[in-house]
Write a structure and sequence with these properties.
4-stranded mixed sheet, 4-stranded antiparallel sheet, 2 domains, 2 helices, 8 strands
């Protein structure tokens, strides 16, 4: 084999690798956008029947990051999500647990809510440890509508909370 033939074969192999990488990047880019909602992305829970104050905090939990990868066909989008969270024990927490629920909602390009799921969790604080970091991994199966690309959907995450907890978060976030 001549050097010119070897160079052509190497160039062809390089193009195949680049084409495979471009296809892989295109598929990753075709996932729905996943985002943590601002006010519901952090939850401060107080002991029942108490006022909002540092001495009455049971726990604070926060979503730090969400990432996802997708596999899809003409009927569904299967989205593997990983949600990184943390929980901090408050002064009023005597049982060493933070019990809460987070939700995931999927909307289409017309802002229509297609699905919403709740995920209850319990974070456990070990002995004298006041902070815990953890990840939740889950799979969403999003039904595709005719004429909709995967990027026509958005996935939003947040914590379930009472109206008072949401108002507290919004006031707190305005001060930042």
């Amino acid at each position: 084999m001549r050097i010119n033939d070897i160079a052509k074969a190497a160039a062809a192999a390089g193009l195949l690798v680049l084409a495979a990488c471009a296809q892989f990047e295109q598929e990753i880019a075709l996932c729905p956008n996943a985002a943590i909602l601002e006010a519901p992305g952090e939850l401060v829970r107080f002991a029942d029947g108490t006022r909002a104050g540092p001495e009455n905090v049971l726990f604070r939990t926060k979503m730090n990051q969400v990432s996802g990868v997708c596999d899809f066909d003409e009927n569904t989008i299967d989205m593997e999500l990983s949600v990184a969270m943390e929980a901090n024990r408050g002064a009023a927490n005597t049982d060493g647990k933070a019990q809460f629920t987070f939700f995931i909602a999927v909307i289409d390009r017309d802002r229509k809510i297609l699905m919403r799921e709740d995920f209850p969790l319990i974070a456990v604080f070990e002995r004298d440890d006041d902070d815990v970091k953890f990840s939740e991994n889950l799979t969403l199966e999003i039904p595709r509508q005719e004429g909709f690309a995967p990027t026509d959907y958005s996935v939003y995450l947040g914590f379930e909370m009472t109206p008072d907890e949401l108002a507290y978060n919004r006031r707190r976030q305005k001060r930042r």
